[in-house]
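Quick one - inputs below.
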Amino acid sequence: MSGSVDRTYWRKKGIAIEPVAEAASVGTAFEWLGENRWSDSPFIDPHLRKYTEKELGEREWQETVQLAEECQPVLAGRSLLWPEVEALLHKRGKKVHQTVLARVLQFLYLQEQMSLKPGVEIAGPAAEWICHRCCTKGAGLRVTACAMCGDKCAVCERCLLLGKSRTCIPFFQFIHPGRRVPENGAVSVSLSFSLTPTQQAVADHIVRFLTSDHRRLLVWAVTGAGKTEMMVPAISSVLSQGGKVLWTTPRKDVVHELGPRLQKIFRGIQVRSLYGGSPDLWLDGPLVISTAHQTWRLYQDFDLVVVDEADAFPLYGNPSLEAGIERSMKQGAKQIFLTATPPREWKKLLRAGILSAVTVPVRYHGYPLPVPKLLREWRLWKKLSEGRPIPHLSSFLRQAETKGGQVFLFVPRVQDVKKVLGWLKEQEPDFFSRAAGVFGQDRLREETIRAFRQERIQVLVTTTILERGVTVPRGHVLVIGADHPVFDRASLIQIAGRVGRSGEYQQGVAWFLAGEKTEAQIQAKKETEWLNQLARTTLWKKEDRF
Amino acid sequence: MVEPVGPNNLMEKRRSFLDNLSVFWYPNIQTCVPVFVFLAEQMWNNPRKRRISQRRSVLHIVDWWSVLFPPDHRCWLCDSAPVPAGFWVSVREKVCAACREQLTPIVSAGCRVCGRSADGNSTGICPDCARVNPSERICNRSAVVYSDGAKQIIQLFKYRGKESLSSPLGVWMAEVAASHFGKQISLVTFVPLHPERLSERGFNQAELLANVIGKRLRLPVCSLLTRSRATLPQSTRTRQDRLVAMQNVFQLSEQVNPKRIENKRILIVDDVYTTGATLRECAKSLRQAGASHVCSVTFAR
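Output:
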């Protein structure tokens, strides 16, 4: 990157070096290295232009060294592309010119404080090309003409939204120089309420896990069990030892919600929430909440990683995001998965004893989970689009109204939101006036959800985007078209889990309305019943409340 | 995340499907021939695989399962929901319902010059075009209205650099160009970027679109123009500033033989038409060089 720093550094060590070739980009250089051009005889590139980079003067060298020492703690523990390094330094108030930055990075490289790779490495067959930033292999990498390096090079389309990763853009992984000094001896934790005995038992179990030799723990806690609160003792114990904690989740909404909540609990500590376009981006702190995609920018920096909603899209079954989370952990760091609906593979591992786990089958208030009721409606979608009466739907709305609750109507596809709203207008005009629809790309999404939380809206027609995270105390749930493949077992359990979140209001119901019973519906019902049974037998539930 | 995650569900399904199949179909040479023809066709039709195969050996790359049982085609713009596939299906059909709702295709042009969408019963020429000198007017057609949804897509394509979007957008524009200009066109060109901007962005979005359009309409694509000075992005200016700033920015490229464009009908490609100042300037220099007829196509208007 900077020949002059290279020369100066090695001269100080008493070694003279000569350039053999000059590559247009880091990608080309790595391709040459892969070909082993210089293995036997020193081959000097005939096209090498007159090499202009001279040794640095003593003053310039001192400046470079000093700047590198300033930048190193800022950069440590991150994996960044060149433009991201610039953005990070800019955010921290260091304006560094390109050539100076090249010198600094070259110096850090020579000091072995970082590793250097091209953003996308194209060596060998195309199936083995890899984007180092997001760890994607093969498909998703496209070769295009690039005006930046003036040649054809590969670009990764998977991690495009975090900034382009190309063959001609260098990618750095800054190594952390060692253990942080314990700066925060005691962490002040202020929980507004005390943990229930169940939660306390689980929390103790998690704290014990931190000192055991297991690496991973699965916390299988039903919806509304108070997962966040149960994690607090473990997090504070890691923080008080001077460690760093990463709380990561595939959903941006969860980061939004969790940031202020955790900040309220950990008063004396800076909680950073990272997501696309967050103000905390590029800042550092002992407790970081991030979306799964943002973990691609971290490197071996955390002692404890909590993966919230570990089975949710897009994290589960996505090897590149999993690799990103793995990369953000220090060696020997612990990983905790939180989920209400572990996938079948995890359950198998659990049964086989490969994965250690703790199960929490009871909610924080001790009431049982609502068991979904399966209903059938003949020609449901036809009736909906034609505006013909659907007795189940009407009676559901009526009963919710008499019990004074709010209603979620879940539909499988975006276009169905409109259909259901149209049906309401036709058949239940008094509900239509208090209804609203919401879906993923909706511009008014946040606003509608806020209105629903403030009870200005009574009926919310939604796609599966609200299956996790959004809770109202007096919710009733109806899944319209529960036989659609988007509603799998996990999704249906999560949806039914929207009901009965508050200890004061337990009249909420969860109904699945479908043309036919599917395996997913039956399994969801079965699992809920099983968890209730488990809660009853383990006597974690309060006797009088069952 | 957890080490042995077990086989992918989808994979499992496919495998069991093949097991069932092998009861009826035992691969011998006669039955293999159509399969190989099918495979070759599949590889040739899949642009990604074709591009890779030009560069490296084919055998390493192709995931044979997905060639035998190709996955559903996904929405061209957002890659989410499955959509109908096939060469003959219009792009509008290959876009999922959510994207379609955000984009408003221009079905009938309200202004016969700039091709803005018809609002109400106005026909003829819109007031903006009426202000322009008739000799400078350029006949433009666009695929969609420049709404927020279109803005997002352009943003993703141009500034985020999702270059693969050039194929759906380009094919869509090719459909529009073919339906409006038909066989009038003999040459396709694009609005150039200043070299500085080009090296900063890494690609010229109009060039990518023009390449797709040229391939689809089977017309030659030439880089005819150069930009003599770097201008600030048009999106940062007001209407009046834009009109002034663009004067004499484009010249005919020195490498182009002027005879090549004499009496030719040329189609200029750009991503967005707002005031039309850019396209009119391009048309001006092309007309000066002797082009008989100049028209333009953009994605959004």
